[in-house]
TrEMBL record:
Belongs to the auxin efflux carrier (TC 2.A.69) family. Keywords: Cell membrane, Membrane, Transmembrane, Transmembrane helix, Transport. The lineage of its organism: Bacteria, Pseudomonadati, Pseudomonadota, Gammaproteobacteria, Cellvibrionales. The chain crosses the membrane at residues 6-29, 41-60, 72-90, 102-120, 132-153, 173-194, 200-220, 227-251, 257-277, 286-309. Pfam families: Mem_trans (PF03547). This is AEC family transporter. It is a multi-pass membrane protein. It is found in: Cell membrane.
C-alpha cells in the first residue's frame, strides 16, 4: 500500500503543479489581473526569447547527446507518424469541415510548455534535455502534417514545401536546439556571465508560459462541447500515448526514456491547432473545445499513466 501511495504521489508531483499553475492563470485572467495584451506580449516573449534560452542552455549544459538518444527520437517520430493516419480514419464519419480540427486536436500536443514542464518535474535537467530533443523532431513532423492537412482540406490558402522549410528554419525553438547541439559538438566554452544570464531568462519560461496558457482557457467551451470534441480529446489523451508507448517498447527504451516519451505524448492539445483550424477554414469552435477538454482531463490521464509506468517499468 505504501508503494502504491508513493507511486501516485510521484505522478501527482509531476502533473499537479502544472495544472494548478494553469488554474492560477485562468483565475488571474478572470479577475483581470492578466490582461489580453499582457498575455499576447508575454507569449511572444516566451516563444522568441525565454523558451529558446531554456532549450539552448539546458541541452548545452546537460549530458544528453543526440547520438545516444536516437532510439527515443525514432520511437517518438514513428509513434507520432502512426497517430496521424489513425486520427484521419477516426475522423472519416465527421462532416468534411470538422475533420481538420479533429485530426489536429487528436495528434498535436502542447510539447513546448506542458511537455517540457512535466519532463522537468519528473526527471530534472536530464529529462528536460531528452524532452527538448524529442520535441524538436516531433515539431518538425507536426509542421509537415499541417502542410498535408492544408493540401487536403484547405479552402482558403495553399502552403508550399518551400514555405514549410523556411518556417522550420526560422522556428526559434528548433534553432535553439540545433545551436546547442552544434555548440556541444565543437566544445564551445561560454563565459559564466553569459550562462548565468541565459539561466535567468530560462527560469521564467515555464511559470510565465503556463500562466499565459491558463489565462487563454475558456472553460465555458465545455458546456458547448460536442461528441467530436470529446472523441478527439480521448484520442489525444488515451490512444496517442498508447501508440507512442508501443513504439517505445519496439525500440526497447529504458524506464526514463519511456516516461519522457509518454509525458510528451500525453500532453493536451496545443493551442496551435485552433489557429490552424481557422486557417484551414475548418471548425475553429471544435478546435477550441478540444483544447479545453484535453487540458482539463490531462491531469487525470497523465497522472494515472505515469503511475502505471512507474509500477511496470521500475
Amino acid at each position: 500500500m505504501d508503494a502504491i501511495f508513493e507511486t501516485f504521489s510521484f505522478a501527482l508531483a509531476v502533473t499537479a503543479p502544472i495544472f494548478l499553475t494553469l488554474l492560477v492563470g485562468y483565475g488571474l485572467a478572470r479577475v483581470r489581473l492578466l490582461s489580453e495584451s499582457f498575455v499576447d506580449d508575454a507569449s511572444k516573449l516566451v516563444f522568441l526569447v525565454t523558451l529558446p534560452a531554456l532549450l539552448f542552455f539546458n541541452i548545452f549544459g546537460s549530458d544528453a547527446h543526440l547520438a545516444e538518444e536516437w532510439p527515443l527520437l525514432l520511437a517518438g517520430l514513428l509513434g507520432t507518424m502512426l497517430t496521424v493516419p489513425l486520427a484521419w480514419v477516426v475522423a472519416r464519419p465527421l462532416a468534411y469541415g470538422d475533420r481538420s480540427a479533429f485530426i489536429q486536436g487528436a495528434f498535436r500536443g502542447n510539447l513546448g510548455i506542458i511537455g517540457l514542464a512535466w519532463a522537468a518535474n519528473a526527471y530534472g535537467p536530464a529529462g528536460l534535455a531528452q524532452a527538448a530533443l524529442l520535441m524538436a523532431v516531433i515539431t518538425i513532423f507536426y509542421n509537415i502534417a499541417a502542410v498535408a492537412l492544408f493540401a487536403v482540406y484547405s479552402q482558403k490558402a495553399r502552403f508550399s514545401w518551400r514555405k514549410l522549410l523556411k518556417d522550420i528554419a526560422k522556428n526559434p525553438l528548433i534553432v535553439a536546439i540545433v545551436a546547442a547541439l552544434v555548440a556541444k559538438a565543437v566544445g564551445l566554452k561560454l563565459p559564466q556571465m553569459v550562462v548565468q544570464t541565459g539561466e535567468y531568462l530560462a527560469s521564467v519560461t515555464l511559470p510565465l508560459a503556463l500562466l499565459c496558457i491558463g489565462a487563454t482557457l475558456d472553460l465555458s467551451m465545455l458546456r458547448r462541447s460536442s461528441f467530436a470534441a470529446f472523441a478527439a480529446s480521448a484520442f489525444k489523451l488515451l490512444i496517442a500515448p498508447l501508440v507512442l508507448l508501443g513504439a517505445g517498447l519496439l525500440f526497447r527504451l529504458d524506464a526514463q526514456a519511456m516516461a519522457v516519451l509518454f509525458l510528451l505524448a500525453a500532453t493536451p492539445t496545443a493551442s496551435a491547432s485552433f489557429i490552424m483550424a481557422r486557417a484551414l477554414g475548418g471548425n475553429s469552435q471544435l478546435a477550441a473545445n478540444i483544447i479545453a477538454i484535453s487540458t482539463l482531463f490531462s491531469i487525470v490521464t497523465a497522472s494515472l499513466g505515469l503511475a502505471l509506468l512507474k509500477v511496470n517499468l521500475p
